[in-house]
Amino acid sequence: MYLSDYLPPALIEYSNPPTNVVGAGIFLYYVIVSLFLVGHSLSFLRTRYEKFPQNVGRRSTKALVVFGFVSFVNLSRHMLNFLLKSYLFWRANKILYKPAELSDDDVVGPWRWMKESCLFEDFAKELVQDGPSSVVTQVALLVTWFWNVRLSQEAQLNGISSNALGPFVVLGQLLPISFTSTLFFIFIRLSPFQRRGGAGAQASVAPSPLSTQGFTSLPLLVTTAAFATIAINIPTFRDSPQLIPLVLATRLFLLLPYFSFSGIRPTDRINSAWAVGFGVIMINFRAAIGNGNVWDVLNALQSGPQSVKALGRDAVIALALAGWLKLEEVVL
Fold first, then answer.
1. How far apart, in whole angstroms, are the C-alpha atoms of residue 172 and residue 177?
2. What is the spatial distance between Cα 127 and Cα 144, in angstroms, rounded to a whole number?
3. What number of CA atoms fall less than 13 Å from residue 273's CA on the CB side?
4. pLDDT in tens, 195-233
5. CA 238/CA 246 separation, integer angstroms
6. Residue 267: CB atoms within 10 Å
7. Residues 287, 235: contact at Cβ < 8 Å?
8. Which of 16, 34, 165, 317 is deepest in the core (most CB within 10 A)?
9. d(C-alpha 142, C-alpha 134), whole Å
10. Spatial separation of the C-alpha atoms in residues 57 and 247, rounded to whole Å
11. What residue spans of the chain are helical by DSSP H?
12. pLDDT of 141-199, one tens digit each?
């Protein structure tokens, strides 16, 4: 049984090439919403930056701006290359096999390309096209998971309302996590309720009574293991109609930190959950890469598909951002 068995025939027709109007519409909506949220967030942060006093909070945003710029350039470069490659491949096929269909005005070419392509499916298949690419994707998903946990906890510690957090949650679902995380921490630094590092800050929010018994860490450990298990099984669906539904389910799973774990804050529990998630991926490592090795995984970051490089390098940026924030806590 496949999901398509339960869908109306008309929806199936308009969700697949050459009449993939649904996919083209979702793609355009995705781009428009992403650009709107990015523009709105940058405009809002710029206004807040100009009004913010000249202090450590304002100065400390400069490094975050650099991280944000690098993240955005990384995303833009690889996504543009992915789309350009898809469009040129489609156009080359038309020139070779169906030249008459290119006689129309070139303005409609991109729209026809989107209807006759499966951009989301092609992107997802690239992420798991081979063993090294799959491992890069799995690690990147795990990094994304923990950044969502981190953002949720920072929102609690800094008293950020759901309305203020909402745009960052949506943006994190649309774009790679390092860019969203950078904007979020700039927002915190330019907010009057920001929490500075140190022992006083750690004591400002008391954990729940059960935390001393270790019960509050259980949901995070269990859900992290479940998320990692889903991640390592995605490659088995690379040629299945269930691939896209599974990818969408994974994206929805990333929303869980914003609705759970309200009593979890201590670093040792986060480290334990990270060890559990990374351990699940490493247990599956040999099965994923076959006769390959860790150098093949690193090579995927350098010469792999555009989608793998976009997601994998974003994970590297996200880890570097985490290291920088930790260094700031020690220094400041």
1. 6
2. 15
3. 28
4. 544 333 443 443 433 333 344 555 788 888 999 999 999
5. 10
6. 9
7. no
8. 317
9. 12
10. 38
11. 9-13, 21-51, 56-59, 61-97, 109-115, 119-127, 131-157, 162-174, 177-189, 199-203, 217-233, 243-253, 267-283, 285-289, 294-303, 306-331
12. 999 999 998 898 888 888 888 888 999 999 999 988 999 999 999 999 887 655 544 33
The Cβ of residue 217 has, within 10 Å, a number of other Cβ atoms equal to 20
Name the token pair of 174.
């649309």
Residue type, 212: T
User: Residue 236 is encoded by which pair of tokens?
Assistant: 């088995």
The answer to whether the CB of 23 falls within 8 A of the CB of 118 is yes
Which pTM does this prediction carry? 0.84
> Which amino acid, residue 28?
L
Dihedral sign of CA atoms 101, 104, 107, 108 in order: negative
Query: What's the CA gap between 309 and 298, in Å, rounded?
Result: 10
| Residues whose CB is less than 8 angstroms from the CB of residue 143 and which lie 6 or more positions away in sequence, other chains included | 177, 315, 318, 319
Tokens 């500075």 correspond to: 196
Burial grade of 140 (CB within 10 A; 0-12, 13-18, 19 or more): buried
